[in-house]
């Protein structure tokens, strides 16, 4: 693959992966990497959530310290992969992203990584869980780490049964119906340096208020949630991380730094019970924000400590020690 310097600089590189055209025309995904300076067969592939892209260098820093090569994927129509013909974040079925993940894993395998961890945040956590269930027997990865996975909509029971179901049905018929996005407008301000946060990132790619979505997006997510609810089985160990509480401030408050302002953490725990895995661990973190690795330093330190303790414990039993895997041909 031909890599060029990434926008993050500091040793990060990127390569564009050209995918088959879809209902909006041309499609690409973008693989970002930072190779370890020491020889290693281990790698992590980081997949972002909704209204997001890879900018969290701290994830790379921590995995590099532990001897991993670092990779991240900007999925089609997100971040580095947005083209002029795209509606940002647009999707009609989550399986559309499987091509992006397959291509990324093929490249990582070709670059001689034999032990691969999939790390997914929010929608990325939902995505890698579904991907693992549908790639059983053809896995080119060894473990899953879900950072506040989006296993259910954060709305009332009646809204899920009636409102979301109706919108999903409409999205299956006319996926281009435009809908506003509804989640805490304070979340972005709690993260970005321009507000009250400590992080700097591209506000066009990750705005405080996400652009409108299509009903097709609701249908795609609802279909994914339904699969989880009905039970999924995966062959690989999975670590599910979440904040200990959800927060719902009606005005700006320091409470934003103390919990998950996007998802209902009880939903995460409850839906995790629907995942059958040879090794599953669920951990809640007091003071954890929605993106746990962007929480205040004492919390994110505990998050990374928990991740690597778990990976150390499962490595001998679940990680595949073998010659370089062949490229993915799924």
From TrEMBL:
Question: What is this protein's name?
Answer: Serine aminopeptidase S33 domain-containing protein
Q: Which residues form the Serine aminopeptidase S33 domain?
A: 42-244
Which organism does this sequence originate in?
Answer: Flavobacterium gilvum
Superkingdom of the source? Answer: Bacteria
Instruction: Give the InterPro entries listed for this entry.
Output: AB_hydrolase_fold, Hydrolase_4, MAG_DAG_Lipase
